[in-house]
Amino acid sequence: MGRIKGISRLIYFSFLPLFCGLIYTQLFCYHRYQRLSNFNSIRIIDLGIPRGTIFGRNGRVLVKDKPCFNLCFVPFDLKNSEKVSNILAPTLNISQEKIKFILEKKYFNPFEQQFLKRDLNKKEVAFVEEKGEQLSGIFVQVGLKRDYKLGKKAGHLLGYLGEVSPGELQEKRLKEEVIKGGDLLGKEGIEKVFDALLKGKRGGIRVEVDAHGHKVKILGKKESAPGNSIILTIDSYIQESVAKNLGRYQGSVVVMDPRNGEILALVSKPSFDPDDIGPYLSRPGNPFLNRAIKGCYPPGSIYKIITELAALEKGIITPSDKLECRGVLEVKEGEMTRLFHCWVDKEIGEYKQHGWIDINTALPQSCNIFFGQVGLMVGAKDLLAYGKKFGLGSPMGIDLPGEKSGYIPRPRLSGGALNLSIGQGALLVTPIQLANLIATIANGGNIWQPEVVKEIVEPSGNEILSFSPHLRGSVFIPKENLFTLREGLYNVVERGTGRNSRVEGLAVCGKTGTAQIAKAELELPTHGAFVCYAPKENPTIALCVFLDRASSAEAATIAGRILKDIFFPPAEGDDENEKD
In Å, how far are 15, 134, 419, 441, 518 from 368, measured between CA atoms? Predict the structure, then answer.
């Protein structure tokens, strides 16, 4: 009897932990295991986050959402990644190793939908549907993609979307933003700067799945909501004209309204297709660099505008004073003598000799010797100070990401007044700064902040934000000095170095600029630039053409074609934009 009681007690104490465990599991872990059970049978199919539409100033749609098909998977539902990758690789045109890597990654939430490939074509959709039984956990899902109407013609301006990186994911979660792996964010341009305003509210479908991860039935649906729309200052016709006329040149063009700072067009080349950036990631020429706001270059002879204004204001020269140009200037630098040359006349193969000339001839002919002598009298300190007055060497504040400041050096590190007088030396500027410089001359001294965004509106059409022109500062230019400079800029186009920009029936004022990449004697390519405004009286357009490796004459030619398109547009159907 005692033995039976002993065995009973042994059995009782053996099963006691089991009973306690069951009680703990049922009472204290109920909600946890219920959640795991639900995750195993219920999936949330993400329908994506719709984004707002981006319009040009005249109401033309530049960017909008459109439906697409994405290939998705739920990590927990995958049965055999080796088999799946072997089936999909040939049709998706993705290596088997890469597919396996994506499928076998450790994901934060194994029950959360992930993307294997976005924007499937019809053939890929049909193949996945046909092989569905062999692809456990893999499914085609309707999603959204951006449709960039201007393609490469506005890549740097509008930007593109890309999957959130681990660093971005952590940063945004710390800010308590609702975001998860696989979400798309603006990576450049307007898409990046206004990402939070463009982004709408996520939608999704709650479905029940079987043991293989296949959908059994829909349990519920949450409707998505589009984001806010943005209206830009960009004129789509001018944007396309700029892209067409810039052609295959490497460089940038900025077109601005000098009356308020609104950017009418901004193009940088080489560019990229925001619909498919993959092929451009390894292309030479840095296609993702927005040269208009991030490219830093010596301004070349365009800086003679600053040299002239500084000299006139300091009273160093008057419009009638003459200096001699013999093609070369001997300058004492300590115990050494430096030879400073005018530009090379390619027709005779020698340095240009302009003889005795005044400022009214020197600017149109872009005489280095005249401006070199004037620059020495002004001095490096004042040449740099006058450049700063016009905003050179600091960001202009354009509402695009990554704008560079350029570089205004200290006088002793500048390379000297002789170099500065013709825009050489350690001085660096951006094309947007040069566009703003000529716009300031055009409007009489106002330095406007360049603006790309005009208005932000709700999906219903109600205005949220409106961006008024912002005056960053102003430069006092005596009336007589401004008149002298403007006449000189007009003559640059009429009979000077900017003749290639002439447009019949339009009075254009401009200035060429050539900056050496290396010594002229090496005959290497140069930076060629041209800034201008039109018409001469009451200007409405200011623009800068800056070419990485070309002549200023080529830059002037491009500017002339753009101006012709703006002021004398062809009749509808007479002109077809060339494809890049």
Answer: 101, 75, 10, 22, 17
